Fold this protein.
Amino acid sequence: MKSLKWFAVSLPGFAAIVLSGCGGSSVMQQPLLVTMGVTPAAVQPGATAQISATVSNDSSNKGVNWTVTCPTAPCGSVAPTNTANGAPATYSAPAIPPAGDLTVTITATAAADGTTAVSANFKVPGITVNVPPPSATMLQVNATAQVTANVTGDSAAKGVTWTVSCATAACGSVSPTTTASGVATTYTAPSTPPAGNLTVTITAASVTNSAATGSTTVTITGITISIAPLSSTVKSAGTEPIAATVSDDPSSGGVTWSLQITRTICNPFTHVCHTVTFACTVGCGGFSATTTASGVATTYTAPVRPPIGALAAVATSVTNAAAKATARISILGISISVAPSSASIAVNATQPLTATVTNDGANGGAGAGVTWTLTQKGVACSPGCGTISPTSSASGVAVTFTAPANVPAYPLLMITATSVTDTTKSASVAITITTTSGAACGAGSGSESLLKGQYTFRLQGFLPGGFVANVGSFTADGTGKITGGELDVASSGAQPIDTTKSSYWVGPDHRGCLTVGGNTYYRFALGGINSSNIATAGHIIEFDDTVGTGLRVAGTLKLQDATSFAASKFKGNYVIGLAGGDANGNRSAVAGTFTSDGSSAITASNLDFDAAGTITSNIASAPGGSFTCCDADGRGTLQLTGGSVTISLVLYMVNSSDIFFESTDGIFSGEAIGVPTGTTFTQASLNGAAVIRKTAQLSTGPIVDVALASSNGTGGTDITDNTNNAGTFSSGTTHFTYTVASNGRVTLMGGTKPPVLYLYGQNAGFLVGTDTNVEFGIIESQATGPFNAASLSGAYTLGTENPSAITLSLESGVATPDGAGNVAGTSDQSSSAGLAQNQSFALSYSVLPNGTGTFGTGTTAILISGSKLVFINNTSATPTIIVVEK
């Protein structure tokens, strides 16, 4: 085996390792080494210098590659870019002196590997420009200053060019624009004063190399403006002196005045907001002088109401419109208070009223005061509802309201004080006109004890938009106070009655007034006086449509039996009749029967519908719906199912055999009467004399009919109708055959589209039409005759029943027949002409043996009994059914 021997040779800057053995030896190559020759410290622009480099251990003899770098081109060049080992290369400096001294790096790289390199740095002297501060650094307009540039390193000695720059267009000028080194130029400030101090930069650039620059600055004294006061608070329509002081305006041009407003605008979809400022020329006020000299005040006059946003006065230099200043202005809005805030005032009495106005700056700060108006439901009513004297007053100065001689039909008035300066600002006082005894009722007072207990009421009528129904309950304490209750109005659901704003009065003739919640007002007439001298029933109308374009409804009220306010009392068979409108504003009616289980279920129902002439007949359902009963006011709910139709109702218990209803959407109402337990209806359930009253509606107007029916108990009946069809009267007798089902449903045959009846007793029930007129009515058994004028005697109430059109006049009142053909009475009426109270009447009446007759000239009346009759006007184009009863 051969033996190996190692040995090393060290030489300066490199090493070699030799491997020796029996078979021979090999030497490892030493690394490349580049050595730079002597380089100059500096090379003048346009000059050359010789450089060289040696590559050691370069067995390939590829020599050296040369490169030149510097921070800013041009850097100069080297030639040739490749030289043999130790051969010289020539570096040529840039011909144009650089801007300031330039450091150039020469790099020699071994061509054999392209990576082994050595570098050397040297300087190419450059041009420097130094501009010392000018002869003046703060200048007025048109003033001058001397500026000098000192240039070094420029062998061409070409000097400099001068320029000026600033934030605005007018920076001034230099002359001459080219100077030799050390030679001054003249800077001239701009002729127009800037808006505020302006900094101007004066720059000298070498002609030889424009990149070589030097600069200095001067400040031009500009126009500045200050406003006093800087912020103001001004009353509406008030004034405030304001002045602007202008500094450094050689023209003494003063300022112009304007207004601006700042608002925050938000995108309702993205909720991104931004602030905008813009000139305000309307609704922000103005200045007595829109141009003033420095230090001279103008007078700002505020608008009559504060604008939306942040308001500011703007003073703008006449000399330079860019010079401005702003001052914040806050406008105080006018407010009004009236004392007293409410009052009850007896007829013919007076009441001082005082309006206090704040922040009214008109009339030099004294304010312009208020004007006074007197309204009833928003309509001017003076002098009929009272007077105010004087009708205008200064703030804090009283005026006098004098009540009318009689309590108005609607005694709730509003007296309003309106700012003269800002007519959008007002305050009101609620005035109630009363009798000298304190009754806010033109019907009088003193008989409040007649109304005592819980009463439910059902009202039906119209708004300009269509049908309306109201039901509710109130508790009267017998002294004029309402101590509880609730009201279902339209589709708003049950609303508790505000007892602090509710009261009633009853006059000596049993007519009275009821106010609920402070602004809903009713007139009523009480009857059915029981042994405790308490009214059990009455007729009622809403009585607050003073101009004839609001809500008008009429109906009845009944004393409730609180022991019936339980589901167990709502049990058995009932017959229901409903009338009013549908969701499209068309007249509709329903009649039928249902059975309640006394818990929560309607176990069966049978219904007939007439919806604007669309007839749905004899719909039986089992189960037939559900109910809830009852709260402390007798209120519950009922859902009746008839085929695919569900009727949702609110109910108020009168007693276990009598219930008022209103649809939950508030557009129709009605009543249900209990059928005595064990009753099975037969043909004999129609036997003898009965009185029918019904309403209907054509496009030409309302239809009313009072009829006398005579049935034989075996399937035949003769009905004598007395009909007023929108002013056209007719009378005639029609023979019908009939069939009575065991549930009380009566089918009539004969005539033209006869109605369907549902009986709840002998000769008694509801009827619903089968034609486009949508008939709805009631049949009642007539007492045994014969009758005569003496059959009517004593005190009666009267009222409109089931009105079918908004054009109708609704009324409630009292009448006293003398038994000898004469009747006197008083009624209260609500019509398209407004309200008419205490309307006295005296008329004659007649009664034939069969109960038909008259109740005043041009009428048809039918006596039901000595306690009740119905009548119509034969010729009125807007007829109604009036029920007269004890």
Summary: Residues 171 and 177 are 15 Å apart (CA to CA). The radius of gyration is 54 Å. The longest strand covers residues 834-847. Confidence is low (pLDDT under 50) at residues 1-26.
